[in-house]
Structure formats: structure tokens, C-alpha cells
Amino acid sequence: MDLRIQRSVVSNLRNRPKAIESGPFVAGLDPETTNPFINYASPVPGVPITAADVADLVTAFTAAGRKPRLEYVVSCAPELENLLIAAGFTVEERNQYLICTPQTLSANPVPDGLTLAEPTTDPDRAAVVATQNEAFGGLADDRPEVAVARIRRTQERGGIVIGARTAAGEWVGGGQTSPPNDGLSEVAGIAVREPFRRRGLGGAITAEIARRFFERGGEIAWLEASGDDSWRVYERVGFVPAGNRLYISRQV
Questions:
Q1: What is the spatial distance between Cα 79 and Cα 250, in angstroms, rounded to a whole number?
Q2: What is the mean pLDDT of the chain?
């Protein structure tokens, strides 16, 4: 499973607006934003990595005006962390990732008064993005129109975007998957506005995203939980721990 997840991550990075191949790494960059959670690299599984390769990757990030940053499945490059630390990188997070299959997925009821739908216009996409920015704090350099264009590209390439809205049409939550690759897709950006939390909406959004992904032929949905509360939400809808990922970066 680790290998499939890592290969899927690398393949999706190659489809970013500006993809850079640097030795054993693929960096997926977006010229429209300096958001470090959008601009990062990951190692190609099975390719040897040297200190010189790390130095070249730093140079590539610097030339692009981006913060050197990596996300990857630890077991697919066990020697990499020490090389990065020696090059001045600092660990941001160590996370377990969780997976869900059609067999483990559990339905989660949508709270009364709310419905789930895919945003199909840019104003609706912008409203879903706004719910995510409100929940996660957003980043000043990630302009709304840039985020909307990214969401639209995700949908055009087969990714799923789901928003929650009230009967009055107010969007109050959302989330999405990455475009599918090798039967896998990452679920990310699950967000609910504060007044609508603790009613099961986050779980309902997650379950609906996974259901639609499996309905379209997907095999494995995966994600990372940001804390105990979200971990419990994801486990209730059928996600189980499967491996470890590392987030690591270097100040420029």
C-alpha cells in the first residue's frame, strides 16, 4: 500500500501547472501561488538518493522562488530524512495516513436542513473555497480566483469536489479528492464552518466524497487526520490506519 500511495502522489505532482523533475524527485509547483502546501516535492520510489540530489532539489526550489518542501511515505525513501536534516530541513509533521475501500465505507447521515452537492459554477466553487479558508485560516498569497481555478482543474481531471449548503443556499462546508491515479485518490480539505460543527457534517462530506469516488470505479481513498477529533470522524466512516508520511521543509 505504501508504494501505491507514493506512486500516486508522484504522478499527481507531475500534472501540476509547473512540474520539475530533479534527479530522484518530482516537484509539483503552481506559478500562481507560493502556498507551501501546494508547492512541494516527493521522491520517486526505488530511485537512490544522494546528498547532491538534495542540494540540486533545493536549488530548483530556490530558482522557482518557492520554499523547499517535501511530503512522502516514509517507507518508500527510508534514508531520505537524514539527508534532508543534514541539508538544513526541519520536520513539520509525522502523520499516519488512513485508507478506505468500498467494503469498509460506512454511510454517514447528512444533518437536517443541509444537502450535499458538487459545485458546478465558479461562484459556487468560490463559496466552497471560502468555507475551507475560514476553517483552515487560509494563506494570504492564495488568491480566491487562483483557488477556484485549481478546484475547477481538479474536477476537469476527474477529482471530486463536494460542498454542503443550507436550504437558503449558503455553503457551509466542503472537501475534495485529488484526480484519481491507479485507482487511488486523496481526500483532502474537509472543512465545516464553526456554527455547523459537531453535527456529523464533516463525516457526511467525507463519506459522500468516498462514495462518489468508488461509484466512479475508484478502489482506495486515502487521507490524513489533523487531530484526534478528525481521526475519530474518519474512522467512523470506514478509514483505517495504513502507513506513515513525513512533512519536512527548509527555510529560505
A1: 17
A2: 94
Whether 1 and 242 have beta carbons less than 8 Å apart is answered as: yes
Per-residue pLDDT tens over the stretch 55-67: 999 999 999 999 9
What's the whole-model pTM score? Answer: 0.91
Sketch out the chain's domains with CATH numbers. 2-95 (3.40.630.30), 114-244 (3.40.630.30)
Q: Which three cell numbers, joined as nine digits, stand for 169?
A: 443556499
Return d(Cα 63, Cα 52) in angstroms, integer: 16
- CA atoms of 97 and 65, how far apart (whole Å): 30
Cell for 140?
494570504
Is the predicted pLDDT of residue 227 greater than 80, yes or no?
no
Q: 38: burial class by Cβ within 10 Å (0-12, 13-18, 19+)?
A: buried
pLDDT score of 134: 87
Helix (H) or strand (E) holding 208: helix 201-215
Whether 77 has a pLDDT exceeding 90, the answer reads: yes
Burial class (CB in 10 A: 0-12, 13-18, 19+), 67: middle
Name the residue among 105, 106, 155 with its Cα closest to residue 129: 155
Q: How many CB atoms lie within 10 A of CB 211?
A: 20
In whole angstroms, what is the distance from residue 189 CA to residue 174 CA? 7
Mean pLDDT of 201-220: 97
Residues in Cβ contact with 179 at an 8 Å cutoff, skipping those fewer than 6 apart: 12, 15, 154, 157, 158, 159, 185
Distance CA 134, CA 137 (A): 5
> Could you identify the residue written with the cell 477556484?
148
CB 188 within 8 A of CB 176: yes
The answer to whether 158 touches 200, Cβ cutoff 8 Å, is: no
Which residues, other chains included, contact 2 with Cβ-Cβ below 8 Å and sequence gap of 6+?
73, 75, 76, 242, 243
